[in-house]
Structures are given as C-alpha cells and as structure tokens.
C-alpha cells in the first residue's frame, strides 16, 4: 500500500509538472478559476500566471454584476476603482468629506450587533442569514431594512422590507466578470416595485440630503454622448443643440440609474468608455490599469454564495417550474446523500 501511495504521488507530481510546462508554452493563455482557489492560493496562481507572456485571469464571481459592485467600491475598506478609503484624491474633491476609517466587515457587524453597538443594518440584494448561517437572534436589537425581491431568511427578520425590482423591471448598467460594461433596459413598468437606486435616493431625500448633489443629473447626459472626436461626435452634438433649441432635449430624472453614469465615467478608472456604443447596445470593455492599489484587509472574508440556478434566491426556491425539472431533483438527492 505504501508503494502504491508513493507511485501515485510520483505520477501526480509528474502530471502537474507536465501541465505546468505545457501551460508555460501556450500563447494567449486565459486562466479561469472559481471559489475553490482563495486567499494565498490566488496570489500563488497570479504569480505563476504572471510569468507567462500574455496570460490573462478570469475570476468567476457569484452573480452577473459582482465585478461591477466591486469596481464601485462595495468593499468596506475601498472606494470605487479600488482606491483605499484613506487615500486623498479626486473622490475627496468630488464628494467633500469622506470617512478616514474603513467600514465594518460582516463578521464585525455580527460582533457589533451582539454588543448592541449595531443600531441599524441595511441589506440590499443579499441574504447573509441564509448563505452564512448567522443566528437571526444576533440582529434582534438592530433596526433591519432589507431591499429584496423575495422573502429570504434575512428579509423575514427585517423590520422593513422594500420590494425591489428585478433585472427586467429597471434600467442601468452592469459589469460582468470579464469587465465588460453592458446596458440594462427596463422591459416595462411594474406597480409596487422600485429599483434599488431609486429607493436609496428617495430615502436619502427623506433624510434631508440634497438629492441634486447626490445625483449629478442637472446637466443631463453629455451632448456628445461620450464621444470626443470624429463624425459621430459632431452629429450627436448638432442633434443635441437642435433638441435644446426646440425645447425637446431629453430630461433625466434623478431617480434614473443612468443619471449617475456621468459621475462613474468621470471618477472610476477604466469606465470612460464610448457612451454612444454603450447606448447602442454594444458591450464596452473596462480596464483597471489606472485603478487604486486595492488590498482588502482580509481576503478570507470574501466567501462564495454557493448559489446556482436551483438554490439562488432569485430563481430557485421560489420557482415551482424550476423545482419540477429533472436536474433540480437530482441535485436535491445528491445534497441529502452528502449530508
């Protein structure tokens, strides 16, 4: 048995060595990895790939806009474009006062709630209680607000649940895993739901914040629609002048998510893409070449949701049709066996 183990170990080592040598000889290599590789292992993978000319990395995120959320500064210690909270620069010039200290991570929020230091918890499109098995009692003394499409475990314990619109009930943009920015167009009006953006703006307005400063919509979209030169730029500009002269220029509501696209394109590195191509329905690739240094203080805190088509709060548990397909029944059987 010991001999078999040594033989197997030797074969495995030789197999991995052969794979490594083969990869080093590849051109235009794309390395795709998911949640199986985390923290220090990601650093090792990047170090290996960096030694291969032209190699690119694709980290598979949980959801369609996970990359976009990260680019916009979702992390507690980073600003949009992966700039550190303590960094001074254009964000301070644009927004004025910015907290010099990082926000709380989810484990820190849980600990703060246990000691009655977390007065309020605002959850948007997430289900921490369901995904991370957090004891609901922890937030019993905190005021919990949840924006969701469904009554998830987290929404169930909330003091206020705000019904959120799904992807087909709102407009805006999203950035996929590869950094491609794409436009999202509303399919139709639905009574009773609002976009996450509109709800946040309305709440800020009710709290006394000046919405016109929060959402730079006064000037509307740029006249050249993102173009700075060429025939398309001139044509778009002449059209905008004509519309304004006849009182027909399009008015943009501060509750429209695209109202903030100007600010994103101006402040977030890599997002100053062609607006006219984006609005025409073409995806526009963003780049992080001029972004901040990043460095989330504890990469281990970035954990996968482990959602799939049949377990996602968006589609799975609340869809009778999906539960009736064969793949769903197969997965449920395997999960029971694994338990």
Structural class: alpha/beta
**Mean pLDDT reading:** 78
Indicate the overall shape.
Answer: globular
Instruction: Kindly report the CATH topology of the largest domain.
Output: Rossmann fold
The quaternary organization reads as: single chain
The number of distinct β-strands equals 10
Largest sheet entry: 3 strands, parallel
CATH architecture of the largest domain: 3-Layer(aba) Sandwich
Total number of distinct structural domains: 3
Trace the largest sheet across and list its strands. 5-6-7
The residue fraction in helices comes out at: 25-40%
The count of helical stretches stands at 14
- Please state roughly what percent of the residues sit in beta strands, choosing from under 5%, 5-15%, 15-25%, 25-35%, 35-45% or over 45%: 5-15%
Instruction: Report the end-to-end length measured between terminal Cα atoms.
Output: 30 Å
The helix/strand order is: HEHEHEEHHEHEHEEEHHHHHEHH
Which class of the largest domain in CATH terms? Alpha Beta
Radius of gyration: 24 Å
Low-confidence segments: 1-7, 218-233, 333-339
What are the defining features of this structure?
disordered C terminus; 3-stranded antiparallel sheet; 14 helices; 10 strands; disordered N terminus; 3-stranded parallel sheet; Rossmann fold; 3 domains; alpha/beta; 339 residues
């Amino acid at each position: 048995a010991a001999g078999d183990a040594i033989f197997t170990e030797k074969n495995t080592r030789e197999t991995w060595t052969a794979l490594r040598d083969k990869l080093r000889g590849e051109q235009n290599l794309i390395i795709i990895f998911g949640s199986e590789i985390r923290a220090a292992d990601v650093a090792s993978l990047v170090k290996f790939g960096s030694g291969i000319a032209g190699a690119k990395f694709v980290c598979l995120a949980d959801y369609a806009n996970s990359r976009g959320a990260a680019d916009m500064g979702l992390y507690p210690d980073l600003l949009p474009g992966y700039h550190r909270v303590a960094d001074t620069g254009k964000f301070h010039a644009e927004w004025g006062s910015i907290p010099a200290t990082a926000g709380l991570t989810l484990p820190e929020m849980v600990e703060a709630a246990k000691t009655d230091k977390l007065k309020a918890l605002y959850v948007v499109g997430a289900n921490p209680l369901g995904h991370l098995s957090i004891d609901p009692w922890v937030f019993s003394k905190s005021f919990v607000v949840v924006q969701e499409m469904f009554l998830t475990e987290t929404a169930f314990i909330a003091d206020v649940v705000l019904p959120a619109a799904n992807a087909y009930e709102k407009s805006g943009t999203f950035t996929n895993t590869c950094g491609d920015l794409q436009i999202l167009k509303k399919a139709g009006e639905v009574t009773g739901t609002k976009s996450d953006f509109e709800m946040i703006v309305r709440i800020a307005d009710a709290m006394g914040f000046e919405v016109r400063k929060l959402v730079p919509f006064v000037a509307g979209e740029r006249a050249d629609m993102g173009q700075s030169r060429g025939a398309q730029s001139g044509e778009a500009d002449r059209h905008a002048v004509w519309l304004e002269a006849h009182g027909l220029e399009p008015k943009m509501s501060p509750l429209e998510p695209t109202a903030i696209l100007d600010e994103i394109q101006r402040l977030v590195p890599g997002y100053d893409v062609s607006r006219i191509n984006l609005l025409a329905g073409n995806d526009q690739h963003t780049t992080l070449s001029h972004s901040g240094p990043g460095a989330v203080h504890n990469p281990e805190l970035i954990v996968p949701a482990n959602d799939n088509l049949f377990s996602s709060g968006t589609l799975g548990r609340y869809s009778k049709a999906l539960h009736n397909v064969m793949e769903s029944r197969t997965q449920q059987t395997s999960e029971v066996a694994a338990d």
